Amino acid sequence: MALQESLRVSLTPPELELIACQQPIEIVPLISMERTAFISGAYGPLRPPHKATVPIWMALNLKSKKKCHIVAPEWLNVEFLQDRLGRETSQPGFSDLPFRFAEVSKVLLDVASDDLENPDKIRSLLKNLREARQAKCRDGLGTLDHSELSLPNLCSMEINEIRPFFVQSMHLLTQLQRQPPTAP
User: Fold this and answer.
1) 80, 108, 160, 181: most buried by Cβ count inside 10 Å?
2) Cα–Cα dist 31/17, whole Å
3) What is the average per-residue pLDDT within 145-166?
4) What is the CATH number of domain 10-176?
5) How does pLDDT run across 98-142, given as a tens digit for each residue?
6) Could you give the 3-state DSSP secondary structure of residue 183?
7) 99 close to 156: Cβ distance less than 8 angstroms
């Protein structure tokens, strides 16, 4: 979502992707590697064909060098996404998805689409899911009042997108509430 400079008070999508890349993911290494220490922790040992759990940033790095296959998270498949899309379009609330599903799915589709089953269908479902959730966000912001905004199960990207509008709207509502009523 493109915003004017004055409304850019939130993190950018690439910054959110960087944060999401700290999450663990399973890989199937194609090389052997002893336990290796990094600033963020020690990972390994890697022994093919046994699965290992590493941060996404490390999995992406190994994948780009053709040294591993990434095991897709359990939620990144056609059946799960079709189910969630059905819930989004048939139920009033937001369906339960991983908090950073948008960022994780984007980086995995960008770098490791060959490790995913039916990546084109997954892209299409994620796009439809995002559009359905954005429509619900717009509807939720339309019912904004000064006391609260309840939109449970929003993901980090969605929260980040509505934050500037929400903050500005709450500021205006606060100002309007403080003004004394004008006499007719």
Assistant:
1) 108
2) 26
3) 74
4) 3.40.5.50
5) 999 999 999 999 999 999 999 999 999 999 999 999 888 777 666
6) coil
7) yes
Are 155 and 101 a contacting pair, CB within 8 Å? Answer: yes
What spatial distance separates the first Cα and last Cα of the chain, rounded to whole Å? 42
AA letter at 103: E
152 is written with which tokens? 């449970």
Contact 96, 75 (CB under 8 A): no
Tell me if 71 sits within 8 A of 56, measured CB to CB. Answer: no
Q: How many residues can be counted in the chain?
A: 184
The pair of structure tokens assigned to 78 is: 């056609």
Q: Which two tokens stand for residue 63?
A: 């994948």
Find where tokens 């939109």 sit: 151
d(CA 65, CA 89): 40
The distance of Cα 157 from the centroid of its chain, to the nearest Å, equals 5
- 66 φ/ψ sector (left φ>0, alpha ψ -120 to 50, else beta): left
- Phi and psi (nearest 5°) for 147? -85, -35
pLDDT surpassing 60 at residue 1: no
Locate 29 and state its tokens.
């290494």
CB proximity list for 38: less than 8 A, separation 6 or greater: 58
Contact of 26 with 71, CB cutoff 8 Å: yes
- Six token digits for residue 148: 């609260």
